[in-house]
From TrEMBL:
<feature type="compositionally biased region" description="Low complexity">
    <location>
        <begin position="103"/>
        <end position="112"/>
    </location>
</feature>
<dbReference type="GO" id="GO:0003713">
    <property type="term" value="F:transcription coactivator activity"/>
</dbReference>
<comment type="similarity">
    <text>Belongs to the AMY1 family.</text>
</comment>
<keyword id="KW-0539">Nucleus</keyword>
<feature type="region of interest" description="Disordered">
    <location>
        <begin position="103"/>
        <end position="124"/>
    </location>
</feature>
<dbReference type="GO" id="GO:0005634">
    <property type="term" value="C:nucleus"/>
</dbReference>
<dbReference type="InterPro" id="IPR026060">
    <property type="entry name" value="AMY1"/>
</dbReference>
<protein>
    <recommendedName>
        <fullName>c-Myc-binding protein homolog</fullName>
    </recommendedName>
</protein>
Length: 124
């Protein structure tokens, strides 16, 4: 049981050092001090701290969410249009391949008829 507590304390200490060395503790402390030094406390302490940490305000966040939603709808529409266009292109390729095959087949039939002396007669 004692070893578990020691391991837990060691993890806490390592995490604290990590936060200090990466500047998190200092940055959060500065944001809290700025909040403390406000003569008139903001209505939302959390939003104040988020702004001090460089995050968007609640209003900005909601605008970004709406913009993202609009862009997702546009993306879905464009993707659907793209898929239809790709399908149409494949259909054109297939029909073109079939037409080319039929033309080649007809040309080969005429050539073999001529080779065999079965020249089509002009009835005119």
């Amino acid at each position: 049981m004692m070893r578990y507590k020691e391991e837990k304390e060691a993890k806490k200490e390592a995490f604290r050092k990590y936060l200090e060395s990466s500047g998190v503790v200092d940055t959060v402390t500065k944001a809290l001090v700025a909040l403390y030094e406000q003569d008139e406390k903001p209505s939302s302490a959390l939003e104040f701290i988020q702004q001090k940490l460089g995050g968007p305000s609640l209003c900005e966040y909601e605008k970004l969410q709406a913009e993202m939603s609009d862009l997702q709808l546009k993306y879905n529409e464009l993707l659907a249009t793209h898929q239809v266009t790709v399908k149409e292109l494949e259909e054109v390729k297939v029909s073109h391949t079939m037409a080319a095959t039929n033309t080649t087949s007809a040309a080969n039939t005429t050539a073999s008829e001529i080779a065999n002396g079965d020249v089509p007669k002009d009835d005119g």
